Hints:
Layout: H1 4-36, E1 50-52, E2 57-59, H2 64-71, H3 73-105, H4 109-120, H5 125-138, H6 143-146
Antiparallel strand pairs: 1-2
Helix pairs in contact: 2-3
Amino acid sequence: MIGIGRLGGLALIGLPFLWLGLFFLFPLLIVLKISLAQSAIGIPPYTPLLTNDGAGLKIQATLANFALLASDDLYLRAYLGALGNAALATALCLVLGYPIAYAIARPPGPQRQLLLFLVMLPFWTSFLIRVYAWIAILKPNGLLNKL
Length: 147
């Protein structure tokens, strides 16, 4: 019999996996489905992967899109360029991120908090811009009241 502690642990582990499945794996499967389908004129602009013609289900999946990616020089260069950019960004994040994280983790409490604040400060810029935009829209003589 499963105890409450074990069930709670399963829920604690299961919720992040459910989140990843819903917002990462499911969209990835949709993209894979589209990449295996054939192009079509209409909505949606691709054929279904499974069709039922009365005799049973037929699989319509094709690897032609991947063959086009590998055979066309333009697509291949764009794909390899994107992979190169991703690898470069990952390497830069590792080279810069680990020393900064190490430098933040070493000092005593108050200095660590200040360093962490200085790292987080630039990420607040978009939030502040949004707040100022809402102020401009909603103030008494703002855009919304003028309309």
